[in-house]
Specification:
Three copies of one chain form a homotrimer.
Chain A: E1 2-9, E2 15-18, H1 20-25, E3 35-42, E4 47-53, H2 57-70, H3 85-97, E5 100-106, E6 109-110, E7 116-122, E8 130-138
Antiparallel strand pairs in A: 1-8, 2-7, 3-5, 3-8, 4-7, 5-6
C-alpha cells in the first residue's frame, strides 16, 4: 500500500523546529498501516530534516549555535556568495543533516523512541515556506 | 513482503562498533528476499548508525577521535548541560551520522560492498542497551 | 513492484559531481512507477552520496573546499594512515554525508525540488570506478 502527499510547511525562522505533529497529521492513512515506513523528503537544498530530542527547546537552540560555528556564514573560502552569506553555509548544513528521513511505522503509528521527534532544520535567514513530500508504504 | 523486528543491543562502551552480524542474525527472513531493502533505525537521540570500513579497528578508533574533536564534550556554547558534558555533544553527533540506514537486499543477503559494515555509534559514556527497529521489505 | 540494478560510475576526480542523469537513465522502469521510492546506495566507504544544488558548479567546489577544511587529510590524530593521507579523511566524510539516499518517485519521475540534484562525493584522490546499487520500489 502506497500513499504520497505534499505538505507545505509555513515559513519558520532560521533554526531547528519540531514538526512531528504536522507530519503525522498530514497522513491519516498512517492509522491503517500495521508494518511499514514513512519517508519524509524536503524539496530544498538550504533546509534539511533530522531526528533528535523532542522535549527541551535548549537542545534545538544548541543545534543552531553548533552548526553556525561548524559552518560559518560567509566563510572566507566560499566562492558561491551571490545569494547572501547564509546561502552556501545552508547548502553544506543541509547535506550534513540530509534531505530525507525514513521512519519505521508500526500498528498505525511512527515507531519512534520516547524522546525522538522530527526536526525541520531551517538554515536560511528567510527560507520561506518549505515543501515536503511524504511517502508512506507498508501493509 | 514486510517483516519488522526489535533488536536490543547489549550496552557498548562509547565509540564505534561493528554490528552487521547481529543485525543480520536478528532477521532470518532476509534469506527469503530476492530484491528489497532493510531499514535499520535506532530509537535514541544520543547514539546513531553509519556504514563504514569493516576490517580495521583503527578506523573505528579514528572515528571516535575525530568526532570528539569536531563536537567537543561540554562545548562552551552549549546551553543543554544538565545531563552531563557528553549529552548535548551526543545529540549533535547522532544527527550528523543519522538515526536510520536503508540497505539494499539481493538474493537473500545485504548487498553491501566488500569493505562495508554497519556501525553502532555510541556517543554517551554510559549509553546502556540500545533499541533498534529492523524493517525488511521486498519480494 | 521492485527493480534492482547495478550502476558502475566511471572514475571521477576528487570532488563533488552531479550524477542525477546517469542514475535516472540506468532505470527505464522508473517511467512505470506512479508512486514509489528510489534508493541509491554506494558500495564504498570512501565516497558518498548527497542531494544539493544542481545549477552552480561553484557550489560543488565549495563543498570540496569546506569538507577538506572540516576533515583535513592526514589529520595528526589519525591512526589509520597506511593507505594514504586522504584515506581516513575519506571514511569520515563518507559517513557524514552518507552511503545511501532515498528519493520520492511520482508519475514516473523523481520528485526532486527544482534545484536539487544527486551528487557523487568522491573523497579519494584516485577513487576509481564506483559501484552503485539502485533499488526502485512502488506501484
Amino acid at each position: 500500500m502506497w500513499h504520497q502527499r505534499d505538505l507545505t510547511l509555513k515559513p519558520h525562522p532560521r533554526g531547528f523546529h519540531l514538526i512531528t505533529r504536522e507530519v503525522v497529521s498530514a497522513l491519516p492513512e498512517l492509522a491503517g498501516i500495521r508494518v511499514g515506513l514513512l519517508h519524509v523528503f524536503i524539496q530544498h537544498t538550504s533546509a534539511s530534516l533530522t531526528v533528535s530530542e523532542n522535549a527541551s527547546p535548549d537542545v534545538r537552540r544548541d543545534f543552531e549555535r553548533y552548526f553556525n560555528h561548524a559552518v560559518p556564514d560567509g566563510w572566507a573560502d566560499f566562492e558561491h556568495t551571490l545569494e547572501g552569506d547564509d546561502d552556501m553555509a545552508a547548502h553544506i548544513k543541509a547535506s550534513v543533516l540530509g534531505a530525507g528521513l525514513s521512519l519505521p511505522v508500526r500498528d498505525g503509528r511512527l515507531a519512534l523512541g520516547t524522546w525522538q521527534g522530527v526536526y525541520l532544520c531551517e538554515h536560511r535567514n528567510s527560507g520561506g515556506a518549505r515543501r515536503l513530500v511524504l511517502t508512506l508504504m507498508g501493509e
